[in-house]
Amino acid sequence: MRITIIGSGYVGLVSGVCFSEFGVDVTCVDNDPTKIDMLNNGQVPIYEPGLEELMVRNRSRLHFTTDTGAAVAQSQVVFIAVGTPERRGDGAADLSYVYQAARNIAPHIKDFTVVVNKSTVPVGTGREVEEIIREENPNAKFAVASNPEFLREGSAIEDFLRPDRIVIGVESEQAAAILKELYRPLYLIETPIVFTNVVTAELTKYAANAFLATKITFINQIANLCEKVGADVHDVAKGMGLDRRIGGKFLHPGPGYGGSCFPKDTLALTRTAQAHGEPITLVENVVAVNLAQKKRMVEKIVQVMDGSVKGATIAVLGLTFKPNTDDMRDSPSLTILPGLLDLGATIRAYDPVGMKEAAKQLPSQVTMCSSAMETVQGADALVILTEWNEFRSLNLSAIFQALKPRADGSRVFCDLRNIYNPARLRDMGFRYVSVGR
Question: Of 149, 174, 191, 325, which residue is most buried, by most CB within 10 angstroms?
């Protein structure tokens, strides 16, 4: 089987490489010639563990091009995997890239082709894509399907090759048979595959992300309450998570969620619901509380610094929204660091992978360092924002010596990912703060 994937960003590239691992002949299309040149030279433009090795292994089945027409003409299945960023002004999903992809695909459809939305799109987008293709090419034989992705950055290869489930929205038996054959390797390992209609598949993606974002936001609010009453949020989360109806995943307190999915998808879902006269006020509150949580972290840092960070040097470890990715989209650092700068702080920062992307998005006043120890040396406080593995095993004695002492001889250590044991660090002489403990 031959397939084409329109869009060679995070979702498109991971999907294309993993389909090639299934033995499928894959052509990845992108309108950025620089990116395509990189890929043809064996260079991966994004950071995702295991992706480069998989791409090299399946080189004979992977093709990269800017020529949409030639790719579509030879394919049974064409995936649309372009970006759907937040639309300026109202927060709804910007579907202009999806619509343009449909227009580019339409003239080149020859034999029966399944056009699959893999981009995260609001309810009704499948119908709109179908209308565009029919308008552009009335004689085209095709069906539109929805196959949302559920990939976690940093674990995307495992999520694609051994997923919890596959959701396919399709209303053509011929198209369903083709997609079933495409995913046949997952049938062999008994992966649950849910076939439904297009609208239901579209909504399933948004509902799943909104629910996970709600779990994160819920435990963050419980963590804030724990700080007021003297409870330990980790014990609360464990007591909750052992209930099989709840589960322990995504009950990890921190500075708020970020990334490419949760922020824009929760906002897009609220806009869709409002447009249909059925507002989801719970998710609306999740969006608002998550933003407030990020700002609350600034207040937490100021408080432990005796009420002011003016003139203080803050060492920040971790800038990406999560470990094992270079993705900076909606990272808490994009709110917290500017907030500290506005209050007069000087910021030094380090991230194991995300420095290049961070430099594009953070204010120029942030000084980028080459290591954790360089960042910390002579700083007035240390703040951990991303739980990279290398930050889990810092030389705490060296950190203590590197930080400037407060008037009482303590050193400020703000662990916003709850990596370290509070009692141990306080015994060492740190003025240690975390989230919900």
Answer: 325
Identify whether residues 424 and 327 lie together within a single domain.
Answer: yes
**Contact yes or no for 168/201 (Cβ under 8 A):** yes
The residue-averaged pLDDT of 294-305 equals: 97
Q: What's the total number of domains in the chain?
A: 2
Is the predicted pLDDT of residue 92 greater than 90, yes or no?
A: no
Structural contact between residues 74 and 109, judged by C-beta atoms closer than 8 angstroms: no
Q: What is the domain-level CATH number for residue 346?
A: 3.40.50.720
Q: Do 314 and 405 lie in a common domain?
A: yes
Catalytic residue among 28, 226, 261, 369: 261
Contacts of 371 (CB under 8 A, 6+ apart): 350
Number of H helices, E strands in the chain: 18, 14
Nearest in space to 19 (alpha carbons), one of 73, 70, 55: 55
Average the pLDDT over 348-360 and give the result: 96
317 with 427, same domain: the answer is yes
Which residues are within 8 A (CB) of 133 and not within 5 positions of it... i.e. 6 or more apart? 102, 105, 106, 109, 115, 140, 142, 144
18 is catalytic: no
What's the confidence (pLDDT) of residue 224?
Answer: 97
> Could you say which of 171, 196, 221 is where a domain stops?
196
The structure tokens 């004979």 sit at 60
Tokens of 416: 């916003």
- Reading phi first (left if > 0) and then psi (alpha if -120 to 50, else beta), residue 409 is in left
User: What pLDDT, on the 0 to 100 scale, is given for residue 89?
Assistant: 75
Q: Could you give the 3-state DSSP secondary structure of residue 36?
A: helix
What are the tens digits of pLDDT across the range 102-117? 999 999 999 999 999 9
Same structural domain for residues 391 and 242?
yes
pLDDT in tens, 169-190: 999 999 999 999 999 999 999 9
Q: Given CA atoms 122, 124, 130, 133 in this order, what sign does their dihedral have?
A: negative
Determine, yes or no, domain membership for 201: no
